[in-house]
Amino acid sequence: MKFFVTTPVLQKMKFDGIEGRAEFTILPPDVQRPLTQHQEELIAKYRLLNDGCQGAYPGPETDKVCEQRDKVNLSKFGICFGMKEQTLADSQWHACRVSSYGYEIGSESFRVTCRPGESITVSLGIFALEDLTAVAKGHGVVKLRKSELSSTYSVIKVPMDDGDRASINYDFDATGANLLRDLYDGRSAKFPIGSGSISVSIGSGNDALRDEIAHAYSVCK
């Protein structure tokens, strides 16, 4: 799967004398993504509650069902309804993509935490893929254009009721900052995950964005 680092910058690099932190927006390609089994189950749950709310006689029990339905925020689990500029009649539930109505720019992110000269952690905050559910931790090689970086990684389920968000944390020694240099140069970094990989590259020629990547590298190297 591919992601592109883009604007807006969610948090510019901040250094407190010990640790540096920065966070960037990442976007997947604007293509159709399959619903996971869990997402399909959530949609079915919502439809059941919606039918109970709209198709029942008014009263306390119906009000209770409507309240339950209103608490089910499917967008938090990467589920959107309809595409931008699409009519309501043509809209369907689907895995969110950039052109989906309700997709929030910045809901998926690339976070850097480092101790200069010592270590760096890169975290990918993404809507959990179905094949991530069986992955807890691992070890692999992050591939850059001209080099490779050894890394350990862990998948942390973000506690959002049913946990459909994931943070994949990659830990490196200080040389891991080189991947930021490659991103600045317009190259991609390919992160291992299970039997597959996630590719990240800068998705904009915006000089201000590249400057923020460069600043993160200068702090973390």
Automatic annotation (TrEMBL):
Name by which UniProt lists this protein: Uncharacterized protein
Species in which this protein is naturally found: Pararhizobium capsulatum DSM 1112
